[in-house]
What we know:
Layout lengths: L1 H27 L3 H5 L3 E8 L10 E4 L2 E11 L5 E8 L9 E6 L6 E6 L13 E2 L4 E2 L4 H14 L2 H15 L3 H20 L1 H20 L1 H20 L1 H25 L3 H17 L1 H21 L96 H4 L24 E2 L4 E3 L5 E3 L16 H6 L1
Parallel strand pairs: 1-7, 2-6, 5-8
Antiparallel strand pairs: 1-4, 2-3, 3-4, 5-6, 9-10, 10-11
Amino acid sequence: MNRSALVRFQLVTFTVLSILSLTYALISYVSIERITGLRTYTVTADFADAGGLYENALVTYRGIDVGLVTSIDLAQDAHVRVTMQIEDAYQVPTASTAHIRSMSAVGEQFVDFVPTTDEGPYLVDGDTVPTDQTETPVPAGEVIESANQLLQSIPKDSLDKAVDETFNTFDGTGPQIAQLIDSSAELVRLAQADLEPTRTLINDAEPLLTTGNEVSEDITSFTTDLSAFTEQLVLSDGQIRAVLDQGPSAAATTTTTLTDLQPTFPLLMANLQTVGQVFRMNIPELRQILVIYPALSAVTNHSVTGFQLDDDQRGPQAPLDIKLGNTLNPPPCTEGYQATERRDPSDTAPAQVPGASYCDVAPDDPKVSRGLRNTPCATDPAVRAPDVANCPQGLPSTWEGMLRRPGASPTPETPAALPNPAPAAVPYNDTDQSFLSPQGASYIIGTAPDPSAPTKEADRWQSLVIK
């Protein structure tokens, strides 16, 4: 009877332990909590790509397994929606970023929550992590393809040469490399001592790296141009060596020249100060010249285009086309030039000057009022004529004094009195009762002129320019 009670007790104990073990196995290995949803909450995340993720993949938070992926579906907006069950013992901040990462090179992906803060709010059952808070890795196939293209782009001969040169570089440098490693360890120790400044440097380097990505094309272009520049340096090696060899003598010559100029150069600069003052007072005019001169040069160059002659040794002839306003006042004169033949401007041979060629019109005609026909006569300036024969008393050979015999002097006639010159009219300012004299001096009616005031004739050319 006692043995039966003992056996019964053993059987009951074994049954209880079996039930407890089975319950533990269901909870730990069969994930009964995930199946029943006990002590978990469901969160979804939208990814641009599945990235090789699969169901039952791990979900981690700060390196700790906090849940599993229950399903992967395609959302209506072409995004991949990943549903995850997370144990309620772990609180994940809402601002966290969900990354799909690879656990190994084999391709075991998992979801890793990276928090940006350790404060709330936290994810709760039914929350969704938007696409802008998720990141997917680069597909392994794309990485392998890029690596394969990179390896194929490396020339084999150059690679062999690089390996040989690397071997020659490090051959026999074991002690130096050991010293370098020891120094690197010391450098790492110092870096760990200054860890916070290093982190700040890394964080602040992000804008710089972003700028580098934006100007990557410019950097590539600069590298290409630098390669061409170095090739040109190789081609110009002889000339560069000649410059370096002759550089000291050229520098010595330059030093000697500067020494020779030392007595006169300061004097030249002092004299140029006066010229600079003149230029400073005429800056608007100089600026106008600099503005007009390029256009004038361009027009001049364009005017001779197409006029070059094959047998012309003096250069091209430019057509001259000048347009002036109000050219008919006074009108041009063509009378008196009928016997003159027009000459080619390219003909530079000696030629006889034509005579009696002038504007042959009446003296009161407005044409060429200052021409030859209005030349004052020597015998009477009031009379104007084109030649001496038309002046009063005619040619000098017909004058009475010229016809007397030698030794007889003519009786001089009393010259007629010249009329007094008419007073000159000057403008008058009725506001301040001032006026300017013909000599340029300013006067005010009712006041005497200042005898100490400088006159126009006393001005020197320097004062005229500086004024």
